[in-house]
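# nightly structure sweep
# worker-07 picked up a monomer target from the shared queue
# config: single-sequence mode, recycle default, output format = structure tokens
# input follows
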Amino acid sequence: MTAGIEFRQVTKRYGDAKSPLVVKGIDLVVPQGTLTTILGPSGCGKTTSLRMIAGLDVASAGRILIDGHDVTSLGAAERNVSMVFQSYALFPHMNVIGNVGYGLSVSGVSREETQRRARNAMELVGLAGYDERLPSELSGGQQQRVAVARALVLEPAVMLFDEPLSNLDARLRRSMREEIRALQQRLKLTVAYVTHDQAEALAVSDQIVVMNAGLIAQAGTPRELYENPNSEFVAGFMGEAMLFAGTADADGAVRLGPLAVPSRRVMRPGSVKVAVRPEAWSVVATGSGALDGRLVKTAYLGGFQELTVSTSIGEIFVVSPDVTRPWAVGDALGLRLNGSGVSVVESA
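# output follows
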């Protein structure tokens, strides 16, 4: 696929040559018409990378291409890129149509054309008829839609989202991420999207890029990163996986205590780390060849139960779909691994 955004050995440091690198010579491709999420802990370089795409920060070394054109030395206004900020950055004294059309009006587009294009963008995000509302008269979700419409109206080659849903409550975040994804797919937009929320990244992305300490730890589809992480860091970062010490024998078979563990790759003999997600455990009777333990904590959450089980390999967090069984602290139970939700990586 043609690259919509491409980084070639891009490096960034703030300050002089002795300052530490924030981004350390990364290669990155966002295919045209797709959505790539850059995910990682605070300080990993994800927002800096987004700002370099936008032209708000200048790369210290390397090249940045948009639709095949080298934009490394171009300013933000010359890149045909629109950005939706975490704070929305709406003008409080302007009504909705004024906010949406602002970028066009300052670019010299006629008033009639600005209003026509602004109303088209507002209709795309479900804000038809909101022309005269002020930002203070809108909900958080509606303000987010205004920010998206303001970015869309410029008809950019690339759209950038910086933590766009962090100011919304959980239910609204879910609906807005679905709207952003549907809009991106319908208009075939090239999007780079930054978040720290793994569930959000899994829900909206064609590709996820996990960053750590200024480097790309792994890039791939949501399924690849969730089911087949390539390192202890990625395994622990994607979802709620718990990491346990396991062993690989001379044949590459992996064991976790008394359990045989499926592995997608052949492991070298010795110590390994086994990442197990809470949903990967099945609760079975004790003494059945499973990992035996004792319940130390339980919580009923309506559609599932959370169990914390003390075992010979440590405490294990389990999500059980069985909501009918009245678990009690102190109950003896066995745990067995399902086929999915388990990854084996080399010890760091």
